[in-house]
Amino acid sequence: MRELTYVARNTVAWREAPDPTLRSDEEAIVAPVTATSCDVDTAILAGHAFIEPPFALGHECVARVVETGDAVTSVAPGDLVVVPWSVNCGTCDSCRAGLTAHCTAVPHMAMYGAPIGGSWGGLFSDLVRVPWADAMLVPLPAGLDPVAMASAGDNWSLSWRLVAPHLKNRPGARVLVVARGSIGLYVCDIARALGASEVLYVDPDPEHRALARGFGAATAETLEPLPHRFDIAVEATGRVDQLALAVRCLAPEGVCESAGNHFRPGELPLLDMYLTGVTLRVARDNVRGHIPDALDLARSGRVDPARVVSHVLGWEQLPDALPEKHLKPVFVREGAPKTIEGPASP
């Protein structure tokens, strides 16, 4: 089989690898049918990764089950499934507590798309082995488009977690989103659908701001300090100065969720945070537990994640198109189920 491999800054290539095989009766082999890039992939391609190449890339996909072990009961060959980004067993103490990104049955941060906790391959590959298939794989509900939901294994479900639980606890909350791409736009859509009284989306990109306005958000090119204005803030820029501004805009006892990849150090307004009593969470998400709820919201018709998909491209275009700067490109394998229309390939 082939796996798309990060080989150097802004350079990926197909490389041959052995076909994966089942190693236990709890495993599955899947073939990605739609896959998309994450902000982490963008950072890796820009040369900001702290792991030396080469390694297989990709950790967001919808896949078709090819083979299952005898003990697998939740999925069967032919099923379309969401593959979560992190590898987890589902039964250790961490997994039972919902901390699937910290599963103790595998090395810490075991994941697809980067050899941080071992080498598990990438989801821009022709075939992928999934250990503990019953714990990991989530069937894609009927009626949901695999292109629109290509990000459900990470960014879409992460975006649900960044705002949905807080809006449940704070109905009608005012939401600030400081972002540079798909996560922030997903959050705008979800926040309005779940009853936020106000959503402000801040992003220097005019096309992104236009999409946010389509989700009912007010927009701004830059963020001016707005003390005590928002109940919930979501930062997805990877820039500490923007995170600091977002925190300064929180009302007393407000909550800030940081989904940015902070590869560079910076300073936070700790005294202001202390005096305001804000809560700040900076974390890689335990996404597996949120995927069903995020898929349910997508199936409800109250949100439209397909609008964030910027390009629908063929699987064979991955080496050339992935390093290009697109908001949310989705790569589709030939013969994949019916998908949404998308802009022509570049």
UniProtKB/TrEMBL annotation:
Listed A to Z, the keywords are: Metal-binding, Zinc
Superkingdom of origin organism: Bacteria
- Which Pfam families does the annotation name? ADH_N, ADH_zinc_N
Keyword Protein biosynthesis listed? The answer is no
Required co-factor(s) are: Zn(2+)
- Record has Zinc as a keyword: yes
Q: Which InterPro entries match?
A: ADH-like_C, ADH-like_N, GroES-like_sf, NAD(P)-bd_dom_sf
* Domain Alcohol dehydrogenase-like C-terminal, chain residue ranges per copy: 183-297
Domain Alcohol dehydrogenase-like N-terminal, chain residue ranges per copy:
25-139
Which protein are we looking at?
Alcohol dehydrogenase catalytic domain-containing protein
Q: Which organism is it from?
A: Streptomyces gibsoniae
